[in-house]
């Protein structure tokens, strides 16, 4: 009876071990193949053998417990054999215990949380660092050559729209404006004069050819010369007559009768000085006659009708000569249609240049002002210096229309598109913007990586933004609504692709392959492999394996 009681527990334990071994073989067969099956049978036999040996030894130890001293008296070779058997039995028992613990752990049911997948929204946001720049830059160039009388700005100064940037010296502007006005008037006058001369040539010529005009000029010259000869000849005779009369009068005066000068002036003083010789009537009459003749000759020199007629004729001829000379000159320079076109073009060009000069001067008379809010980024002139026309004076960069310059890697460029919304952070302040421009060509950054330059516009810039500083942008690249969304931590990945674990009807885990669409750092869009309402395991996939017995517990319940 005592032997039966001792044996039953061992048989029960052995039966349990065998059952566990069979279960392990069945569960692991799909994963390990025939190798596992081949090793399971020897283990089972070894365990049975070990159990049988243990029972035999136990019975022997019970029956011989009272005679230990007699057992020690056995021969040495029998005693060593007995200890080897005992050690073998112990070793087999330990191995059986290890297999039992392992099999028991594998077959233990593990609790896991599960969730039901459903539709939702997913949005992909890409973050980049960039540099603040401006879309609007204005360089002011001098429109005139004049000294700058006022320039107070420096690089970095902020200006508002309408603020004075610099001024020119007023006196120099006034002088330039007057010069341009006179040059314009001169051009107009030259053009009008040329047309008038051309018209006069046509009128004065009266159909005469240039040779006929020149022939008539020669005739006039000869006629004038002939008339001058006549005038000179007659005037010379009259002058000689006058000289002779004056000499005779002087001779008479020496005799006390009269003085030529007194007679000419009507002076009667000499008469009062007359001597007794004056009584001689003959001499007195002679003197008076001489004086009268002198008066007649002097009058004739000025008013002789023949001399006056000749002089008038000369004047008429000279007037005709002048007209014909003008006609000759104009005829020689008479404009062709081409000449007139060139003259008109020259006049228009001069008018355009000087009119523009005057307009430019008038536009800067009150100084140059800023066209927008901005920052001075360059100053190329100094107060008191002469600004040459066309030279750069100052540059203003707008703070109203600014952008963020970023560089996108070639792996991300497929997701970024113009018009996408962006969140911008500058010095802790948040702004909204959008992708304004994407370069059509890639370049290499300082690390030699191919990047695409991209611009992000800012919708609501503030005055506190400093150009050239750093900004952070978050571009909303992709979004999907009413789509299947799963937390990324529930998805495993291996050489066969992405997958999730699900639970079959027997409580075992099995793998379901999935295809991912959009993804973020936390969520993934499932476009194939799952449907809304499917239940998936939410435990870490790396801690699970297919065929694992689990006890599901709904998440958040």
What does it look like?
It is built from 11 helices and 22 strands. Helix 1 packs across helix 4. The protein is rod-shaped, with a radius of gyration of 66 Å. The protein has a 6-stranded antiparallel beta barrel. A 4-stranded antiparallel beta sheet has the order 3-10-8-5, with no helix packed on it. Strands 7-6-4-9 form a 4-stranded antiparallel beta sheet. Among the domains are: 107 residues, no CATH class; 86 residues, conserved putative lor/sdh protein from methanococcus maripaludis s2 fold (Beta Barrel); 129 residues. The chain is an alpha+beta fold and 557 residues long.
Features:
557 residues, alpha+beta, four-stranded antiparallel β-sheet, rod-shaped, disordered N terminus
Task: Please outline what is shown here.
Strand 12 (421-426) and strand 13 (429-438) form a beta hairpin. The strands form four sheets. This protein has a six-stranded antiparallel barrel.
């Amino acid at each position: 009876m005592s032997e039966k009681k001792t044996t039953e527990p061992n048989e029960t334990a052995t039966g349990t071990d065998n059952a566990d071994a069979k279960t392990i073989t069945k569960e692991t067969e799909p994963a390990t193949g025939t190798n596992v099956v081949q090793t399971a049978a020897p283990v089972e036999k070894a365990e049975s053998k070990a159990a049988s040996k243990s029972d035999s030894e136990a019975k022997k130890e019970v029956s011989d417990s009272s005679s230990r001293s007699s057992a020690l008296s056995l021969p040495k070779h029998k005693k060593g054999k007995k200890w080897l058997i005992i050690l073998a039995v112990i070793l087999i028992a330990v191995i059986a215990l290890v297999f039992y613990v392992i099999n028991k752990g594998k077959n233990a049911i593990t609790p896991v949380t599960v969730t039901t997948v459903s539709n939702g929204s997913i949005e992909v946001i890409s973050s980049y660092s960039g540099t603040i720049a401006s879309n609007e830059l204005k360089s002011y160039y001098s429109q005139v050559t004049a000294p700058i009388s006022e320039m107070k700005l420096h690089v970095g100064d902020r200006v508002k729209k309408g603020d004075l940037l610099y001024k020119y010296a007023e006196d120099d502007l006034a002088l330039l404006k007057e010069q341009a006005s006179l040059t314009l008037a001169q051009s107009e006058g030259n053009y009008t004069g040329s047309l008038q001369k051309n018209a006069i040539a046509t009128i004065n010529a009266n159909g005469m050819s240039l040779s006929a005009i020149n022939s008539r000029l020669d005739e006039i010259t000869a006629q004038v010369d002939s008339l001058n000869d006549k005038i000179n000849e007659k005037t010379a005779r009259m002058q000689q007559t006058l000289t002779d009369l004056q000499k005779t009068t002087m001779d008479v005066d020496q005799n006390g009768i009269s003085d030529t000068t007194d007679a000419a002036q009507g002076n009667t003083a000499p008469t009062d000085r007359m001597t007794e010789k004056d009584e001689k009537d003959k001499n007195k009459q002679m003197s008076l006659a001489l004086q009268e003749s002198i008066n007649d000759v002097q009058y004739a020199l000025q008013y002789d009708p023949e001399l006056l007629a000749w002089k008038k004729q000369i004047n008429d001829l000279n007037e005709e000569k002048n007209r014909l000379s003008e006609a000759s000159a104009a005829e020689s320079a008479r404009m062709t249609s081409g000449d007139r076109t060139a003259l008109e073009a020259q006049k228009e060009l001069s008018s355009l240049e000087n009119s523009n000069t005057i307009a430019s001067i008038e536009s800067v008379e009150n100084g140059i002002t800023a066209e927008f809010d901005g920052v001075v980024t360059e100053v190329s002139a100094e107060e008191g210096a002469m600004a040459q026309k066309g030279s750069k004076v100052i540059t203003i960069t707008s703070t109203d229309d600014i952008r963020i310059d970023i560089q996108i890697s070639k792996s991300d460029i497929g997701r970024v598109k113009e018009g996408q919304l962006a969140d911008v952070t500058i010095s802790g302040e948040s702004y909204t913007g959008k992708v304004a421009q994407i370069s059509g060509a890639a370049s290499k950054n300082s690390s030699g990586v191919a990047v695409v330059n991209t611009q992000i516009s800012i919708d609501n810039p503030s005055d506190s933004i400093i150009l050239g500083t750093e900004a952070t942008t978050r571009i909303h690249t992709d979004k999907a609504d009413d789509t299947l969304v799963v937390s990324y931590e529930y998805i495993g990945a291996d050489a066969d692709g992405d997958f999730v674990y699900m639970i079959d009807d027997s409580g075992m885990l099995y793998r379901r392959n999935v295809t991912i669409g959009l993804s973020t750092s936390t969520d993934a869009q499932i476009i194939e492999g799952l449907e809304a309402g499917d239940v998936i395991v939410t435990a870490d996939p790396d801690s699970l394996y297919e065929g694992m017995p689990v006890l599901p517990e709904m998440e958040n319940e």
